[in-house]
Amino acid sequence: MLSALPPKKGLPGVACIGLAFLAAPASVALAATSRAEIEASFRPAREKYIVGAPIDIHLTLKNQSRSEVKLTISDTSFRFRAHDAKGKSVAKKGAAPVYGTRISTRTTGPGKTFTRTVLLDRYLKIAVPGSYVLVCELDVSLAEAGQPQQTRRISCRQELEIDVGAPDQAELGARAKELMRKLADPDDSVRLHAVGTLGFFDVETSLPCLETAVAHGAGVSRQAAIYGLARLGDRRAVQAVSLAAQADDPGTRSAAVSALGTLLKGSEDADAVRLLATKLSDEDRDVRDRAISALRRIGGDEATALLQPLMDDPDPTISRRSRYELAGMHIEALERRHGPGELVPALIEEFSSSDSYVCQTAARALTETGAEAIPVLVEALGNEERAFRVWATRSLAMIGSPAVPALIEQLRHEDRRVRGNALVTLGTIGPDAQPATPAISQLLQDADEKVRAAAAKALAGIRAKPPEEGAPPR
Questions:
Q1: Are 351 and 447 found together in one domain?
Q2: In degrees rounded to 5, what are phi and psi of residue 142?
Q3: Could you tell me whether strands 113-119 and 78-84 are parallel, antiparallel, or unpaired per DSSP bridges?
Q4: Same structural domain for residues 305 and 255?
């Protein structure tokens, strides 16, 4: 049995040695014997990986407690990073796993062990042969079965050395064939994992395999194959996806319609537009909704003409979606027509539109112009219309630190709404708004109760400590 020093009194802690983790008491009120203990370990799924194939690893969890333990793990519990021998990162960001990792909640008996294969996403798809270090992290929620009030969240971190070899078409083909055989497995989770893995090979290997899975698959594995083709982004897949859009299963139709929008973005493809036009009257609402979004992504006058009558659709979901997508198409057309020097004034004019969807979309577009948009967005913090105030606040928060000086000025505005909205924005910006802390602290004594509350929330968002009680504001 592993042992470790207990955490400091009154503080939650995680005691650990190597890869074994003990959930320590969160407070002295919990019984000392109330411990759930788990051992977690990662290991490579194969001796050598190859360029062009996905990276998969095995996760093993073992219950080291004397009683049943309830574990909760999901895809979001994992984090992965990779670097080469010189420490250079080969991932664009902290990567998440896909397919085959979901465990959700599981109860396991004393001494029991179970293993899951974790397939890493394309952010960790290594393109250069060599040796790499894969950093694996996992968060697990666990508790003794029947005692949910004593659930603990523990963390595990491990480094694996992996070797990646040069591309080998013969080996790629053999692995792909092995996965294709699994598409006939009666277990849907096995088929889903096979389809997901196929989607992370190189395009020439993945494309024919996924097209076969779309043509002959069923259920969620067929839908996963459609989404896999969309991720590949190769327009050779359009024919297979178009055929799937005619399926009897609404889930398959919905996936195919969405994939067409992704594969043909900006193409104004007439054949796809005509196919999607038939889906605007589909009996399934989700298919209709996704067809609207797909038409927006494909674009063109014909797509616009199809969406305009839907603004008054009796189904509020369809009406809202069509209005939102048409507003997006309008702003995108505006961006194409105007040069860099003309765009901001044009977007400012659209931001004043009486159409709330156009206002919202223009506000989002303004955030991408950066500092140029700050004056008009700051002015909108005091607008009579709530929609303007909401989108101005969100857009300024997205711009971030460049907007902080202008927002500090607004903290002295005579209108309490302006002061309050500026505080909300600064709190949303977070730690980058630290320079505003002195001015925000003064508003803790504002005459308006709502402004005082907003000031306290803003300081919490910035993670700044308010002045001690009785201390004069700075």
A1: yes
A2: -145, 155
A3: unpaired
A4: yes
In a domain, 1, yes or no: no
Q: What is the 3-state secondary structure (H, E, C) of 280-310?
A: CCCCCHHHHHHHHHHHHHHCCHHHHHHHHHH
Q: The whole model's pTM is what?
A: 0.60
Cβ atoms of 145 and 105 closer than 8 Å: no
Q: How far apart are CA 121 and CA 196, in angstroms?
A: 10
- Joined together, the tokens standing for residue 169 give 């078409």
User: Is the domain of 129 the same as that of 201?
Assistant: no
Count CB atoms within 10 A of the CB of residue 446: 18
Provide the 8-state DSSP code for 68.
-
- Give the chain's mean pLDDT: 79
Q: What amino acid occupies position 451? A: V
Of 117, 148, 167, at which residue does a domain stop? 167
Measured at the alpha carbon of residue 40, what is the angle toward residues 37 and 42, in degrees to the nearest 5?
180
CA of 251: how far to CAs of 127, 204, 216, 218, 227, in Å?
A: 34, 27, 15, 10, 12
Does some domain include residue 108?
Answer: yes
By percentage, how much of the chain surpasses pLDDT 70?
Answer: 83
User: What's the first-to-final CA gap in the chain, in angstroms?
Assistant: 56
Counting the structural domains of the chain, the total is 3
Rg from Cα positions in the chain: 27
Report if residue 376 sits inside a domain. yes
- CA-nearest of 182, 204, 205 to 99 is 182
Give the distance from CA 310 to its chain's centroid: 29
Average pLDDT along the chain, 474 residues, taken 10 residues at a time: 29 29 27 59 88 83 82 75 81 50 68 81 71 86 66 79 86 85 81 79 88 89 90 92 95 95 92 94 94 93 91 90 87 77 78 77 80 85 81 87 92 90 91 91 92 92 56 36
Same-domain pairing of 192 and 324: yes
Q: What single DSSP character describes residue 466?
A: P
CB 391 within 8 A of CB 359: yes
Do both 123 and 177 map to the same domain? no
Domain at 289, CATH number: 1.25.10.10
- pLDDT at position 146 is 64
Q: Is 209 in the same domain as 122?
A: no
Q: How far apart are CA 228 and CA 222, in angstroms?
A: 10
CB 452 within 8 A of CB 416: no
pLDDT tens by residue, 335-364: 778 776 677 788 878 877 777 788 878 888
The verdict on 265 and 413 lying in the same domain is: no
